[in-house]
Specification:
Length: 333
C-alpha cells in the first residue's frame, strides 16, 4: 500500500493555477445507494479514512440521493473540511417516471448553490460543476450565473460535466473553466479524448468519472448476475455485450499480471499516464478497494506499455453504449 507521503507527492493541479490534489480522488455517488444499499455510518467512516490516506479531492452532486450525498459528506467532513477540495454539481432535476430533467437557468443556478451549501454545511464550494448541459439555455447564461457565485465568494472554481468541446470553448470565454468531467476509461474513450484535445490546450483539468468502467474493469464482473442497481440497465452489461467486453477485460488482466498489479490499478495508472491534466474519481464503499485504487500511484508504465495497453483495447472496441438510450440524450452536449 502506498503511504500518505507518497500520495501527497503525486499531487497535480486541479485547473490552471488551481489547488494541488491527489490525482486519485473519491467519487461519492455510490455512498447514496445508487449501486446497492449503503450504510451512512460506514460511508462517513470511509470518507474520513480516505482523507487520512491522503485523498484530497472529493466529488459529489445534489443529484446523488437527491441531497443525501451532500448531507452525508458534510457530516463526514466536520473538523477536516480544510484538508480537501470539495466538488459538487447541480443541474439535474428529478422527473418521476422518466429520465432526469435538466435546468440551467440562472435563477436555478443560484438556488441550487444555496441548497448545496446548506446541505454540505460549508461557506464555499471549491469546485462547482454544471452536471448536465441544458440545451434550452445558452451556456453563456448558465456560466454567467456560475461566475456570479465566484464573485460572491460562494464558489472558488467552475466546472462542466459531459459538455462537448464547442460548449466548453463558449463557456470558457465567459469565465475560466477549471475542470471538465466526462466518463473516461480504457473501454470508453472516443468522446473523452475528443474533449481532452481542447481542454488540454486551454489549461483545463480533465476529471475522469467511471474510470473503472463502473466495475467492469476491476475483473470482478463475470456474469450479468454480478451487476446490481442502476448498472444493470447499462448496455455494456447486457448479454452479448458483456461477453465481448469481458474479452477486452481479459487483455487488461494479462497486462496487470505482467506488471504485478491488479486490473484496477493498471487501468487507473494508464489513465494517469495520459497526462498531468488527468484526474480520476473512482467510487467505492469499501476501504480495501480505496487502498487498492491508491496503489495505482505506485504503478509505473513506460511509454511503450501505455501505447501497448491502449492498442489492446482501442477506442470503439467496447460493445454497447455507455448509457441507456434515454440517458444518452443528456450527455456530450
Amino acid at each position: 500500500m502506498v503511504t500518505p507521503e507518497q500520495v501527497a507527492a503525486s499531487a497535480r493541479p486541479l485547473g490552471r493555477g488551481g489547488p494541488r490534489v491527489c490525482p486519485i480522488g473519491l467519487g461519492c455517488m455510490s455512498l447514496s445507494g445508487v449501486y446497492g444499499d449503503a450504510d451512512d455510518a460506514a460511508s462517513e467512516a470511509l470518507i474520513r479514512e480516505a482523507v487520512e490516506l491522503g485523498v484530497t479531492h472529493l466529488d459529489s452532486s445534489d443529484m446523488y440521493g437527491w441531497g443525501h450525498n451532500e448531507t452525508l459528506l458534510g457530516r463526514a467532513l466536520r473538523g477536516i473540511r480544510d484538508k480537501v477540495v470539495l466538488a459538487t454539481k447541480f443541474g439535474q432535476v428529478r422527473r418521476e417516471g422518466g429520465a432526469n430533467a435538466v435546468d440551467g437557468r440562472p435563477e436555478y443556478v443560484a438556488a441550487a448553490c444555496e441548497a448545496s451549501l446548506k446541505r454540505l454545511g460549508v461557506e464555499v464550494i471549491d469546485l462547482y460543476y454544471q452536471h448536465r448541459v441544458d440545451p434550452a439555455v445558452p451556456i453563456e447564461d448558465t456560466v454567467g450565473a456560475m461566475a456570479r457565485l465566484v464573485e460572491q465568494g460562494k464558489v472558488r472554481l467552475l466546472g462542466l460535466s459531459e459538455a462537448r468541446p464547442e460548449t466548453i470553448r463558449r463557456a470558457h470565454a465567459v469565465h475560466p473553466i477549471a475542470a471538465v468531467q466526462t466518463e473516461y476509461s480504457l473501454l470508453y474513450r472516443r468522446e473523452a479524448e475528443e474533449t481532452r484535445a481542447l481542454t488540454r490546450s486551454l489549461g483545463i483539468s480533465f476529471v475522469a468519472y467511471a474510470p473503472l468502467g463502473r466495475g467492469l474493469l476491476t475483473g470482478t464482473v463475470r456474469t450479468p448476475g454480478d451487476v446490481g442497481g442502476r448498472r444493470a440497465a447499462h448496455p455494456r452489461f447486457q448479454p452479448g455485450n458483456l461477453d465481448r467486453n469481458l474479452e477486452l477485460v481479459a487483455r487488461i488482466e494479462g497486462f496487470a499480471r505482467d506488471k504485478g498489479c491488479t486490473p484496477s490499478q493498471l487501468v487507473l495508472a494508464w489513465l494517469l499516464a495520459q497526462g498531468e491534466d488527468v484526474h480520476v474519481i473512482p467510487g467505492t464503499r469499501r476501504r480495501e478497494r480505496l487502498e487498492e485504487n491508491l496503489g495505482a500511484l505506485a504503478v509505473r508504465l513506460s511509454a511503450a506499455e501505455v501505447a501497448a495497453i491502449g492498442a489492446a483495447v482501442p477506442p470503439g472496441a467496447a460493445a454497447g453504449e455507455r448509457y441507456p438510450e434515454a440517458n444518452l440524450k443528456a450527455v456530450y452536449l
